[in-house]
Amino acid sequence: MSATLIRIKLPQHLRTLARIDGQVELHVDGPVTQRSVLDALEASYPMLRGTMRDHVTQQRRAFVRFFACEQDLSHEPPDAPLPDRVVTGAEPYMIVGAMAGG
Question: What is the pTM of this model?
């Protein structure tokens, strides 16, 4: 299976940390899932390890959300396939810093 080019939008604080200007485009090998996209992102930008998911458990951080095709994928299984529009590059995979407050 060949690598798939995925577009990823990161929140400003993660772009600053990784010294990225704008959207990221990464090649993902194998099935395109949240896990494979995050694995590829962290491999290309090691300074992002631990910012989106826990180092040990690989669980999503509480104030990070994952979206694609106007759907919140934050609670989907990490190995569930991403929507076809993300796989084809028509839509980006978005990582968003959640807001909290009172």
Answer: 0.89
Q: Is residue 81 part of a domain?
A: no
**Amino acid at position 102, single letter:** G
CATH number at residue 56: 3.10.20.30
Is position 13 within any domain? yes
- H helix runs in the chain, sequence order: 12-18, 34-44, 84-87
Per-residue model confidence as pLDDT tens for the chain (102 residues): 578 899 999 999 999 999 999 899 999 999 999 999 999 999 999 999 999 888 888 888 888 999 999 999 999 999 999 999 999 999 999 999 877 665
Structure token pair of residue 63: 């104030």
